Every structure is written in C-alpha cells, then in structure tokens.
Amino acid sequence: MSVTQTQKPGVPQRRAESYRDLIVWQRAIQTCVAIYKLTARFPAAEIYGITSQLRRSGVSVSSNIAEGYGRLTRDQYRYFLGVAKGSNLELQTQLVIARELSFGSRGEIDGAEQLSFEVGRMLTAMLKKL
Fold first, then answer.
1. Crossing angle, helix 74-100 and helix 50-70, to 10 degrees?
2. Distance CA 75, CA 67 (A)
3. Topology adopted by domain 20-129
4. What pTM was estimated for this model as a whole?
5. Average pLDDT of each block of 10 consecutive residues along the chain (130 residues)?
6. What is the pLDDT of residue 16?
7. Which DSSP string do the residues of 5-52 spell out, in sequence order?
8. Which of 59, 88, 106, 122 stands the most exposed, by the fewest C-beta atoms within 10 Å?
9. Per-domain boundaries in the chain
C-alpha cells in the first residue's frame, strides 16, 4: 500500500511490486549500514553491549518492514510496521546513549539519527494510511 514516489493529487496510489521498492525500506537499509559503519569503531569491550544492540535494532527495522510487506493481511502488515517503528525508536535511544558515552563521531551519530528520524516519519505516515 506504499508508494515509491511522490503522489500527485488525483492519481491513484499503486502498491509497490516488492518491499525493495519501498523508500522507507531503502532508508532503513541506509540507516542500518550507517549503524554498522559507526559501531565498527566502538570499543571492543562493547561488542556484546551497545554495539550489538544498535546493530540488532538497525537490522530489525528493515527486516520488519519487509516481513510485514510479505504478510497476507493489512492487519499483519500494520503489526510489523509497528514493530519496525518500535525498533526504530529503540535505535534512536541507543544513539543517544552512544553520544553520551562519546562512542563514534558526532557527525556519524547525527547522520544515523537523521536517517532514523526520516524512517520514523515514513513509518508513521504509512501506519496512518493503512
């Protein structure tokens, strides 16, 4: 039920042919890649701590968007988009913690955070339309 381009007034909305066509999924992938790059330079002692948590949250967002897209009903799709939204908020919280602990560069954290905010806005809009 999502669109891969900006909708024009009066033009019917089309369903993306694949979850890979969803801009929200594409941005979630970009966010996840940014998280992996950011955490690559975190302290080794954090591999099972915040590094792992950030990576798992990042992977969860795009994975749940894809899984929801593949489900059979609108309610199931909404459920998985809701899970993706929750994982995205978890990711944002962990980025705040990483910033407070001075892990990673401020620019990298800010960039990942901005991507995450964009994904959050898109998920909210999608949930309102479903």
1. 160
2. 13
3. de novo design (two linked rop proteins) (1.20.1440)
4. 0.87
5. 40 71 97 98 96 98 97 96 98 98 96 98 96
6. 79
7. SPPPTTSPP---SSGGG-HHHHHHHHHHHHHHHHHTTS-GGGTTTHHH
8. 106
9. 20-129
